[in-house]
Amino acid sequence: MKLLFWRRKPRAEAESSVATAVPAEPAASIAMIERSQIPTRPLAMPIELRDALLRFALDCLVAGGARVRVEADDLISAVLPDGTLVRYTTSLTRARAEADTELLVQGGAALAQLLDACAAHAAVASLRLEAHAEPLEIVRSQLAAPPADCGACVHGEHTELCQSCPLRTNRMVLAGMAKHAAPRIARQWMGRGVELTYSIISNDRHGRRDEQVRVALEGETGSHLPLLAPELLADAQAQNPPRSAAKELNVALTRAERALTPQLHAAGSLLRLLAEREYRARLDDIQTTSRRLLRESPDEAPAIHEALERELARLGEVYAVEVDARLTSTCFVERPLAAVTIPTQAGTSVELVADLAAGILLSPTCTACRTDTRAASICAQGHLICPACRRHDDADSHSGCPICAGVSMANSPSDVLSEPGALTLAHVDAMSAATWRLFVTWLLEQDGYRIERGATLDSLDYWLCRSVSGDETLLAGAIRFADRRCLSREDVERLAAQRASQLAPPALLISTASAGESAREASQRLGVRLLDRTALSERLDGLVARQLHEREAAGRDQQTRAEAAATTRSALLSELQHAEEALASAANTRRAAGRSAVASAASTLMDALVPAQRALLAWETLIHDWTAAFDEREARDGSLSLRAGEAAFAEMAGRARHLGAALAEAGERVAESPGVGDLGYTVWRRDVLEQLSAQCEACRWRVLGIDPSQWREFTAAHDAPAFERAAAAAATALHAATRASRSYAELARRARLEESTA
User: Fold this and answer.
1) Cα–chain-centroid distance for residue 628?
2) If you placed Cys at 284, which of 276, 636, 657, 690 could pair as Cys (CB 3.0 to 4.6 Å)?
3) Whole-angstrom Cα distance, residue 377 to residue 201?
4) Measured between alpha carbons, how far is 751 from 31 in angstroms, rounded to an integer?
5) 515 and 530 in contact (C-beta within 8 Å)?
6) Which of 388, 405, 422 is the last residue of a domain?
């Protein structure tokens, strides 16, 4: 039996058959569209931005409510809530080609505007963190008892950690816990805290320095909390600030101000020390110039005093040191906390708090000094005592507990550094990380080294330094510990490992911690010089004394030199006086009559004149050295500056005694010659005596022109009229020498001295 069925014709064939049946109409002309040169991609493939600045701009715009579109890997556009269209790029070529596209670059106006908007948007925030760990697991992994054979970490600060100390693995050490006693969860709750971000701005002569500091505090008590880590923000939830936000913020601000005050005072003391020498020099220049103008123009005293006040005010503005902390953002944080009770050996218990969001144990507070600590011991009464308080002598008889001994241990850093002053080791302990690096840089500069490059490895900062002369290199390292433990062998080896294999420069490790025995042994073995807490304190005291009391030290040195100069001045005047007395006694009435007697007297006088002139020439050199030992202009403080030292002045006194004896001997030989003679002998001898006396007088007035005993006042020590008299006496000696030369020529002609000599 056959089944008949219809076969459906394909649609394309049906349409073609219909088309053949219907007559075709003329087709309309179609314009050809040129293919775009911009490559396209499927809508499912997102465009990845290649620059972090563009990704930051994208997040900032989205947070501000803008509609953002990624047009290319280096270009984004957005429509702001007010309808404004903005376009940002990191390509300089695109920014130049497109007038409406702004360039995002570090230091640019567009990026600065986005940063300001982001800072304003994030100035106040509120977050809720989720729990990521169990309380008992946190206690088991992070709390440990001190090693049985050591325990130095809880018995006193500035101690060297043993190789098995739990502090090396960032765990908490607690002595006095009961053995085999399991901790117990007392309660769990959502704790509220405030994280404050401050911008510390330091301004001095050399510019501005900015530093960001974050402080996290508990809202009600103000105790310290861990800072927010980036990994905790992944599942954090935004929420409205708590109702008691104002109260909690006030408590946090008060505690944060107390915590930041030591840092600000330390930064101010360091910056003031850096500018002290230059400021004092400029101040002395201004005051010295004012005093000189007052001496030269006493009638213009009011105008000079007014100008001095303006210059001093301007100098104070230029060298002013300003350190300011500005609150830039506030974040209210709710975090899950748990209180865990730890049994003690005395039958009491200690309660520790675990942060379930960060998975860490919060540092407990010492019962005596109220400071946070990572190592502590528990006394019989249940007091938790930090190593610093346990070292107190009065607490030894009460198992190291100052509370049981009735000793007050108020040693807050804010109390120690309540006022800024001279830089001390306490300031160095309170410095922030950036200020600490600036201090180390200054310390190396005092030793004649400048930093070329550096890096950071965990808590160790190290730099390759070169001396100012360029012929020496130094590997300098700096390290600080928050728990005030000693330097160990590992710390020295970490710095020594950074030496270049070929150069192997000498190394220096600077630290506020004391050096332990293993660190000293390693430093000698590896050739690393240590500048630990004791040596750093001595070095700092010396540098501060040199910087702040440099003028006093210079004054003491000048006083010593002035005393030596005064002794030399007395010796010079005494020898010149003897020479002048010898020349004054040369006047006599003995007469040389006849040509032969005149020739003999002239020969005797000439034999005495030659050594006298030689001695006076040496005296001229000595007096020149004497005047060159003093500055011709007044010093910055208005005093007489002495260039020569004690040895130089003593050497001048010795030369004066030697030359004085030679000149006195020549004067005695001159006195032996007849005072009167024929043929012009009398005139020549008188001119010779006048010449020698005038030369001695010129030397004496030049010595009298400087009085070292009055060195503190230049006008009193520098006698200008005496130098004028010295110049007049020198002119008289020159004229007398000219006359003596002429009179001797006349004597030689009349007495025929050449024939007598022949």
Assistant:
1) 37
2) 636
3) 40
4) 137
5) yes
6) 405
Q: Is residue 236 part of a domain?
A: yes
Q: Assign 460 to helix, strand or coil.
A: strand
Q: How large is the angle between the packed helices 681-704 and 550-584, nearest 10 degrees?
A: 160
Other CB atoms within a 10 A radius of the CB of residue 475 amount to: 22
What is the identity of the amino acid at 130? E
pLDDT at 36: 44
Q: Collect all residues with Cβ–Cβ distance below 8 Å to 598 and sequence separation of at least 6.
A: 592, 677, 678, 679, 681, 747, 751
Q: Could you tell me if residue 622 is inside a domain?
A: yes
Q: Which of 505, 522, 548 finishes a domain?
A: 548
Clarify whether residues 369 and 477 are in a common domain. no
Which pLDDT belongs to residue 42?
52
The answer to the question of residue 18 being in a domain is no
Closest alpha carbon to 289 in 658, 634, 692 = 634
- Is the domain of 232 the same as that of 373? yes
The CA-atom distances, in angstroms, between 658 and each of 572, 615, 653, 746 are: 11, 10, 9, 35
Sign (positive or negative) of CA dihedral 737, 741, 747, 752:
positive
Instruction: Name the helix (H) or strand (E) containing 237.
Output: strand 237-238
DSSP 365: B
Give the helix/strand (H/E) hosting 352.
Answer: strand 349-355
Kindly give the pairing relationship between strand 349-355 and strand 322-343.
Answer: antiparallel
**Cα–Cα distance measured from residue 359 to residue 331, given in angstroms and rounded to the nearest whole number:** 20
**Domain count of the chain?**
4
Q: Which residue has the tokens 């008289």?
A: 732
Please, what is the angle between helix 550-584 and helix 245-296, to 10°?
10
Which of 632, 608, 617, 614 is closest to 717 using CA atoms?
632
Any domain includes 446: yes
CATH of the domain at 83: 3.30.360.80
Residues 542 and 561 in one domain: no
Range list of H helices, 673-713: 681-704
Rounded CA gap, 615 and 661, in Å? 9
Asked if residue 150 and residue 248 are part of one domain, the reply reads yes
Q: Is 423 helix (H, G, I), strand (E, B) or coil?
A: coil
Task: Please enumerate in sequence order all residues whose Cβ is within 8 A of that of 521, keeping only pairs 6 or more positions apart, or say none.
Answer: 489
What is the reported pTM?
A: 0.64
**Intervals of the chain under pLDDT 70:** 1-45, 156-158, 391-400, 407-421, 500-503, 546-555, 636-637, 754-758
DSSP state string for 526-584? HTEEEE-HHHHHHHHHHHHHHHHTHHHHHHHHHHHHHHHHHHHHHHHHHHHHHHHHHHH
Check which CATH number belongs to the domain holding 448 and give it: 3.40.1350.10
State the residue for tokens 């002048």.
Answer: 580
Q: Determine contact, residues 515/531, Cβ cutoff 8 Å.
A: no
Closest among 202, 219, 201, 190 to 330, alpha carbons compared: 219
Cβ contacts of residue 464 below 8 Å, gap of 6+? 451, 452, 453, 454, 473, 474, 475, 505
Nearest-10 crossing angle of helices 720-751, 681-704: 160
In this structure, the answer to whether residues 595 and 727 fall within a common structural domain is yes
Residues 447 and 390 reside in one and the same domain: no
Do 194 and 334 belong to one domain? yes
Tokens of 77: 């556009």
Which residue range forms the structural domain that includes residue 99?
52-121
Rg of the chain's alpha carbons, rounded to an integer?
Answer: 46
Measure the CA angle with vertex 328, ends 323 and 334; round to 5°: 130
What lies within 8 Å, CB to CB, of 24 at 6+ separation is: none
Residues 393, 476: one domain?
A: no
> Using CA atoms, how far apart are residues 354 and 332, in angstroms rounded to an integer?
19
Q: Are strands 207-218 and 184-204 parallel, antiparallel or unpaired?
A: antiparallel
